[in-house]
UniProtKB/TrEMBL annotation:
Keywords: Cell membrane, Flavoprotein, FMN, Membrane, Oxidoreductase, Pyrimidine biosynthesis. It comes from Winogradskyella pelagia. The lineage of its organism: Bacteria, Pseudomonadati, Bacteroidota, Flavobacteriia, Flavobacteriales. This is Dihydroorotate dehydrogenase (quinone). InterPro entries: Aldolase_TIM, DHO_dehydrogenase, Dihydroorotate_DH_1_2, Dihydroorotate_DH_2, Dihydroorotate_DH_cat, Dihydroorotate_DH_CS. It comes from the Bacteria.
Amino acid sequence: MYKTIIRPILFQFDPEKVHYFTFGLIRFLSKIPGVKSIFRRLYVVEDKKLERTVFGLNFKNPVGLAAGFDKDAKLFNELSNFGFGFIEVGTITPKPQVGNPKKRLFRLKSDSAIVNRMGFNNGGLNEAVQRLKRNKGVLIGGNIGKNKITPNDAAVNDYELCFNGLFDYVDYFVVNVSSPNTPGLRELQDKEPLTKLLKQLQVLNFQKEKSKPILLKIAPDLTDEQLLDIIEIVKETKIDGLIATNTTISREGLLSENKKEIGGLSGKPLNNRSTEVIRFLHEKSNGAFPIIGVGGIHSAEDAIEKLNAGATLVQLYTGFVYEGPALIKEINKALLSSVN
């Protein structure tokens, strides 16, 4: 029904407007008595065999929602009714910011892809915290970044503010230095500034009564040498794992007319490269740390391929937009079939 009726209608309109319309619709429907139960019956798969314990956290299933979809932590409770095992909110910055000028979100229909240059648009740390206080048992990741106006030499301060502010309200953290849509942000992926940033967050982390997992989200555009540096950085800073990968700046092999739009590309064209990065990191590190695999998952086979490459968990974003919530159930059912 989603792919044959709902998606063709939604895809007639501006993607950013559709995103907010869909949010409003899900929120409205979820307030109607019985609708949440209907969603859960349709999409949630519960089975002990799907459960995963990763970096000390218990996941009901290994399929999560990637950051960028619920940027402001507005809909995580409702979205959990579609069967996700965990939801990552953000990217959250200390201060509110409007992001880049519109139009900044584009569908590449011929490629089953999306290009975005949103620019960390969000309501800021304080607003997100107030919403996260209403969490009803959803396992939450907090994806954190710096404000656009913050220079790179002061970026650590922004990440510290978000870390301390969100600490009591998220289950794990994701350090985002790999978005291509904030000028200069990817420079923080260089070995020296990245090591400094992660070490400082770990200092704060170990000062807490009980530390929380810190993950690093990396770009798919890193070279093998840079990926080897990332493995060393994980080892040196003792962070808990990686998310591979963020969106790409590559436009290789695209068919859509609007393929030259500036921004980060997600969706099917990213699938192979994301899996290559996961496999490389897993093999070169000898499986030393967990990897959350994200990028181009549009089918159960895509998800299983990433898990076989070395991912411990997977996340959806563009596949959720193109395939609908049935994709989550499809992946979890396939995973159950593979262990029975």
